[in-house]
Write a structure and sequence with these properties.
Radius of gyration: 35 Å
Number of strands: 0
Structural class: mainly alpha
Distance between the termini: 129 Å
Helix content: over 70%
Number of helices: 5
Strand content: under 5%
Order of helices and strands: HHHHH
Length: about 120
């Protein structure tokens, strides 16, 4: 008789731990978002509950979504924009240098061909 009540109590305990454990696990992305002061905290929280009904398929994406935002750098695109601007500036500088070199080469070729013409004229 005692073992029956013990087994029933253990069964209820395990069921409650699993139930609350699943809820706690699905709130991890929301807790991350709240800690990072994410601008989409509420959406992540609601999507965490929705993921319970979608058999946890969107939960990893919620984790990623919550961890992308950081308060000190936002989404992290500012640095990318700055790097692209720097690369664009360097590319423009290289294009200018190449055009200057092309002008020098054409000038030197012009000098060379005029020197060749003078040699031909002198030989005749």
């Amino acid at each position: 008789m005692f073992l029956d009540y013990f087994a029933l109590g253990l069964l209820i305990f395990v069921a409650l731990v699993l139930f609350y454990g699943i809820i706690v696990i699905h709130d991890i992305p929301y807790e991350i978002a709240k800690e990072r002061d994410h601008p989409h905290q509420d959406a992540i929280h609601v999507a965490g509950w929705v993921s319970l009904f979608t058999l946890h398929t969107i939960w990893p994406f919620l984790w990623i979504w919550a961890t992308l935002w950081r308060e000190d750098r936002g989404w992290g695109f500012k640095k990318l924009e700055q790097e692209q601007h720097d690369l664009h500036h360097r590319l423009e500088t290289l294009i200018d240098q190449v055009s200057e070199l092309e002008n020098e080469v054409s000038y030197l070729k012009g000098k060379q061909s005029s020197a060749d013409i003078q040699k031909v004229v002198e030989e005749k």
